[in-house]
Amino acid sequence: MTRNLRTPFFALLAAAFFFAGYAAGQNQFGQPRTVLQVSLIKFNPGVSDADGQKVIDGVKKMAAQIPGIKNIWLKADRMEPRDFDAAIVIEFVNRAAADRYAESPIHESWSRQLQQIRLTSISPQITNP
User: Fold this and answer.
1) Among positive and negative, which fits the CA dihedral 85, 93, 67, 104?
2) Which end of the chain is flanked by fewer CB atoms within 10 Å, N or C?
3) What is the number of other CB atoms lying within 10 angstroms of the CB of residue 88?
């Protein structure tokens, strides 16, 4: 390569790397078709941390037994409203899986355990159009 072509070539190459890095750094997001169930739970007064954690840990057992559960989250990093005690998020592969979960005897058994220590809860399901 001649000296006259080297400078423009390297300038063009540097510009290409710069713009490729800029494009790669742009915020990208998706809108998955999965269904999320976000449950905020407030325990009855006097429920021990161990009893509350035992019920929350029961979600792992359910996830292993009910088909269509893709992911679970069991630890609340920050709670809003602050007077709630626990949060659970379950991601289902689709609406049919969320419906099977709601009707499952495994879920029903877990719900009975939760009802013994739960004062109230909020559980919306969220998805994308």
Assistant:
1) positive
2) C
3) 21
pLDDT attached to residue 1: 60
- Distance (Å, whole) CA 105 – CA 111: 10
Residue 87: which residues within 8 A CB-CB, separation 6 or more? Answer: 38, 39, 40, 41, 73, 75, 76, 79
Q: What domains, with CATH codes, occur in the chain?
A: 35-126 (3.30.70.100)
* Token pair belonging to 3: 């000296």
- Ordered DSSP codes for 45-85: TT--HHHHHHHHHHHHHHHHHSTTEEEEE---SS-SSTT--
Dihedral sign computed on CA atoms, order 81, 84, 90, 95: negative
Which three-class secondary structure state does DSSP give residue 86? strand
The residues that bridge with 89 in the sheet, in sequence order, are: 38, 73
What amino acid occupies position 35?
Answer: V
Contacts of 91 (CB under 8 A, 6+ apart): 34, 35, 36, 69, 70, 71, 72
Residue 80, pLDDT score: 85
Backbone phi, psi, residue 70, to 5°: -90, -45
